[in-house]
Design brief:
mainly alpha; 3 helices
Length: 90
């Protein structure tokens, strides 16, 4: 027994093939959650650490889908929101 425990020696619960599948699945899920948190989550109108990557990602997706003018409209709307928030704070 490699690991002593109160209940005695317990064998491996998962086979090595199942463990490998579990590791691959957990890596894939972690990557998907990270992608979502960096590129998809809206952190509000203020500038934040992911603003640049989000703008780049959205611009590339818009280019890929053939959407034109969406980025300029989005940037101007966000600028207006930021200006409104700054005016309220004054």
């Amino acid at each position: 027994c490699r690991f002593p425990c109160i209940l005695g020696c317990v064998g491996m619960v998962l086979s090595s093939k199942a463990q490998r599948a579990w590791k691959v699945a957990s890596i894939a899920i972690t990557g998907a959650i990270t992608f979502h948190c960096v590129f998809q989550v809206d952190y509000g109108p203020q500038e934040h650490v992911f603003s640049g990557p989000q703008r780049f990602y959205r611009r590339k997706v818009d280019e890929m889908l053939g959407i034109t003018g969406a980025l300029e409209k989005d940037v101007s709307e966000k600028q207006q929101q930021q200006d409104a928030i700054a005016d309220q704070q004054r």
